[in-house]
Amino acid sequence: MSALRYTDLDAVHAHVWEDFETAAEDPGHPYRQLNFATVYDETPDLRTVVLRAADADARALQFHSDRRSRKVEALRKNDRIAWHVWDTESLEQVRLYGAATVHLDDDVAAALWASQSPGSLSVYPRPTAPGTPIEGPEDGLRPDVATDPVTEEDVASGRQYFAAIRTVIDRVEWLHLHPDGHYRARFDYGADEVEATWVVP
Q1: Residue 152: which residues within 8 A CB-CB, separation 6 or more?
Q2: In a 10 Å sphere around its CB, with 0-12 CB exposed, 13-18 middle and 19+ buried, how is residue 89 labelled?
Q3: Which of 24, 72, 167, 184 could make an SS bond with 201 (beta carbons 3.0 to 4.6 A apart)?
């Protein structure tokens, strides 16, 4: 549990984005795996994804996905998204809201593909789309990659199915369940400024 209690909104804001930028580089960070929500057929749709890139100045978070997945289909129809993460040690919750863009064969997708290890890309060289019904649990696995560790050559054929998802955040909600009392902050992003306020937790 974090004993630090923030009293300055600018410090909270910097702290939140520093955590996301660190998590994008550190697989052990509690913010590395986040819940990501879309809207599919007018219904909320939630899953866990791995944070791959974060840029505080651009207010951007990125991950990658199979371009044939339902989340990509959902984002093409409705770009509004939400993120959620909970740190069990510091007792901090962060919720973020914004819009997403899907990148397939542009510079954003190319840069994210190039920055990933072959192991993280090893799910893409498979002919069937995520969610396709199969006979057994092994049937959807990649049959053509037998090497250990996986190499760049092993995953190259999966590039055609790869998508980078970039989200730009327009609101952050941060909650800290501190032993001296719970408290909460909200940050709304305008064109040129951040509106920061304390809110009732």
Answers
A1: 118
A2: exposed
A3: 184
Helix (H) or strand (E) holding 3: none
Residues near 1 by Cβ (< 8 Å), separated by ≥ 6?
Answer: 89, 90, 91, 179
pLDDT in tens, 61-105: 999 999 999 999 999 999 999 999 999 999 999 999 999 999 999
DSSP state of 32: S
136-159 pLDDT, tens digit each: 776 666 555 555 677 888 889 999
- Cα dihedral 175, 71, 140, 115 sign: negative
Nearest to 98 by CA among 51, 59, 132: 59
Q: How many CB atoms lie within 10 A of CB 12?
A: 21
Q: Does 108 or 138 have the greater pLDDT score?
A: 108
How far apart, in whole angstroms, are the C-alpha atoms of residue 94 and residue 85? 5
